[in-house]
Structures are given as structure tokens and as C-alpha cells.
Write a structure and sequence with these properties.
about 425 residues; five-stranded mixed β-sheet; 13 strands; about 40% helix; globular
Length: about 425
């Protein structure tokens, strides 16, 4: 495969190779389910500078839709989506949730330190939270904290998330699968409940899959969502690593699900999913969340699209190059720009703080699209996004009128048309 063929295969696997069609009616739950079936999971992130990260992949593929569709899918029985520790904290279909049981049982090696140690450090609290949620759930972390610790303030001297003991216990029970989210409240807090009360009855009734079968199924979901990729790509989708990942890929090759291929310029084994398609051209246009499945694995993004991309939320402001919440802009088969956006809900506008040409990865040479074409298409996408967010329009610049980046002038011309 040429690199361009691999790129188009990846876009087709994610449903990003074609323009979203003009709709005569609202997006339906069935159409939302179609995207979930294709991408396999939606990473959850609470940052709401523009729109929460898990809302964006659906918008990128469906166009303007009612986010209440996603809320209903995850909070009303029978649920189409449930929360689990998958790529990171993610929405996954209920049957995919059952494939994660091996990870939940292996929390000592799979969970991070402050969670893995909970049962040893807080055994009594674990039992108290279990009983409380069983009796009164669904409950938020704040409600559990209030019940078990009263008005005592969380210890703010500890590095990290500064969770209370109650929150750490809840996250342990969430990671291990005893609890999951029955939904989220208006402040986007999980409402924890017993997993047996959240999963659909028919899914609960199915036998627990063996670990090897479950891992192989998860790797296959990642491979299908990639279309073409490496072992590292497929494993990253559900954060699977080590011998179990290699074994799953070998078995998928043996049964014909994965086909070894060569991609020009790549120096390690590559595999194509048997259902992957390679369109002759890609004509999509959309903004991508920093947590979109297409850009999960940054090395893959560099190799496929020739773009060096790093999110700068955690970078001190004076050191940021691209912006606090910078979104890749996909045009055709290229990541053509990086755009730092903010939904200024007070002023009712979508602000463009920065608009840059997508930075090339080291050692990569690619033909950049015409800047005015990129700006014209970006302007159309920004206007559509603003309407979806319920904003009145787009403003290039922060509240002081300052905007950064090489595309700003061309974007201003496009917005003036």
C-alpha cells in the first residue's frame, strides 16, 4: 500500500472519508448507534472549552445533532452505552463492557497506583461504599462523600487529583466493574450504581468470556476501527499491551481477520482488517476533538498524515505553541490546520484564538493545501459548529481582538465573505 492508500483506508474505517450529507431531519438514535458501532468507543473528557470531547466524534461524523441522544443512550434502560475504563474513561457498548472483565480483575497491574492500593488501604471504606450504593444508588461522589465523611474537607495537600477517600474508593469500584455510571448529572458528575443494575439484562445473562477470547475481540474492534495499522495501533485502542496483545494479533492473522501488508515508508509489520476498504479519494471535512479515535495514537497520526500534534492543555500558557484547546481540522485526506477554539457562551460566539497550518512531523515533506482554500472550508465548518453549539457566530480573536497563526489573515477574509 502507498501511504496515501493507507491514509484513505484509515479515514474510511472511521467514516471520515466523505462529506457529511445535508439532513432534512434530526439525527436519530439509530444513526448515533451506527457511529458507535464503527468507532467502537468514545473517550470521555470533562473539558468544556468548546464541547466535551465525547460529543465531538459524533458531531464530526454526523454533523449537528442533539447531545441529549448520547445522554439517553447512556442513562436510560436498555442502555446502548455504558462507562468503563477502556481507552481511558470511555463510553462503550454493553457487550464491549463484558470484554473488559479481565482488566477489572487484574486491577493490581492494570490500574494506576492510587487506585490499585485502595483495598489494602481502605478496606472498611470499600465495604461501606458498596453497601451505601447498593441501598441508595445511583449516587454522585459528592453524595457518597457527604454520607460517609460529613462536612470534612478533602485533604488538599496531596499531589494529583486531590480526591477524597470516598472518591478513590468509588473509582476503585468503577475500575474493577462493581460499579459503573447510571448516567451523569447536570454538573457532569457520574451517578454511580451497581453494574448489575445498569447493564441490560440480556448482556448480564451472557457467560463471561475467557480472557484470551475477550482480548482478541477487543483487538479486533481496534483493528476494524483503524482499517490498517500496526500492533501498537491496535493495542492502543483499548490500552492492551504485552504478550496478550501479540498473541491476539497472531491469532487474528491466523484466522484471516488481519492480513499482513506493507506500507511504503513504514519499517515494521502492518496489518489490514479484512473488512477495510480503500476509497479512491477522500473528501471529508470536519473538526476533530483532541481525543478523536482518528488521532488517539500520535505516532500513527505523524506517520499517516505527516502532522506533529500535541495537546497543550497542561502546558503553561507562555510555553504554548498552538493553543490551549487546539483541534485538528481535517480536509480531504489531510490534516490541514490546527485551530484553538473557545465557546464564549457569555458573548454568544465561537472564538478562534489561533489558526495554524498543521505542523509537519520531523523528516516529513508534504504538499500543503492552498491556504485560502483551507481558510474558506474552515470558515464554513466553524459557522456550522457555532450553530450546533447554540452560538450566534464566529469571531476571529480573543476578547482583546488578538488571534495567532499563519491562517488568521486568510480566515478573516473568508469570514468577511
Amino acid at each position: 500500500m502507498t501511504l496515501a492508500q493507507a491514509r484513505r483506508t484509515a479515514l474510511a474505517a472511521q467514516g471520515l472519508h466523505v462529506r457529511r450529507r445535508e439532513r432534512t431531519g434530526p439525527v436519530t438514535a439509530r444513526q448515533l448507534q451506527g457511529v458507535v458501532d464503527r468507532v467502537g468507543l468514545l473517550q470521555i473528557d470533562s473539558v468544556n472549552v468548546m464541547a466535551r470531547a465525547h460529543l465531538m466524534p459524533l458531531y464530526s461524523r454526523l454533523g449537528p445533532y442533539d447531545p441529549a441522544l448520547l445522554d439517553r443512550a447512556a442513562s436510560r434502560a436498555p442502555r446502548r452505552l455504558v462507562e468503563a475504563w477502556a481507552h481511558q474513561a470511555s463510553y462503550v457498548p454493553p457487550r464491549t463492557y463484558r470484554l473488559l472483565g479481565w482488566r477489572q480483575r487484574a486491577y493490581r497491574t492494570e490500574a494506576w497506583g492510587s487506585i490499585a492500593g485502595v483495598p489494602m488501604q481502605h478496606a472498611a471504606e470499600v465495604e461501606a461504599v458498596r453497601q451505601l450504593v447498593a441501598e441508595r444508588g445511583p449516587l454522585t461522589g459528592a453524595q457518597v462523600h457527604e454520607q460517609l465523611e460529613g462536612s470534612q474537607r478533602a485533604d488538599r495537600t496531596e499531589w494529583g487529583w486531590n480526591w477524597t477517600t470516598a472518591k478513590r474508593v468509588l473509582e476503585f469500584l468503577f475500575f474493577t466493574g462493581e460499579l459503573t455510571a447510571a448516567g451523569r448529572n447536570g454538573a457532569f458528575e457520574r451517578r454511580y450504581d451497581l453494574t448489575e443494575r445498569v447493564l441490560p439484562a440480556d448482556v448480564l445473562a451472557e457467560p463471561e468470556p475467557a480472557e484470551d477470547d475477550a482480548v482478541r475481540a477487543l483487538v479486533e474492534i481496534g483493528a476494524r476501527a483503524h482499517g490498517v495499522g500496526t500492533v501498537r495501533c491496535f493495542g492502543d485502542y483499548f490500552r492492551i499491551r504485552g504478550p496478550r496483545l501479540r498473541r491476539a494479533v497472531d491469532e487474528l492473522v491466523e484466522d484471516g481477520t488481519l492480513e499482513p501488508v506493507e506500507v511504503v515508508g513504514w519499517d515494521r509489520p502492518v496489518y489490514r482488517h479484512r473488512d477495510a476498504t480503500t476509497p479512491r479519494r477522500a473528501a471529508g471535512r470536519c473538526l476533530l476533538s483532541p481525543f478523536d479515535p482518528l488521532v488517539f495514537e500520535r505516532r500513527r497520526l505523524e506517520e499517516l498524515f505527516g502532522v506533529r500534534y500535541r495537546i497543550e492543555i497542561y502546558v503553561p500558557a507562555p510555553q504554548r505553541v498552538w493553543g490551549y484547546y487546539c483541534l485538528p481540522f481535517l480536509l480531504g485526506e489531510h490534516v490541514a490546520a490546527l485551530v484553538d477554539l473557545k465557546a464564549d457562551r457569555q458573548d454568544g460566539v465561537l472564538r478562534v484564538h489561533a489558526a495554524h497550518h498543521a505542523p509537519q512531523a520531523p523528516g516529513v515533506h508534504r504538499q500543503a493545501p492552498d491556504p485560502q482554500l483551507v481558510a474558506d472550508e474552515l470558515a464554513l465548518e466553524l459557522e456550522l459548529t457555532a450553530r450546533w453549539l447554540g452560538l450566534d457566530g464566529v469571531v476571529v480573536g480573543d476578547r482583546d481582538g488578538v488571534a495567532r497563526g499563519e491562517l488568521v489573515s486568510a480566515l478573516n477574509r473568508a469570514e468577511a465573505v
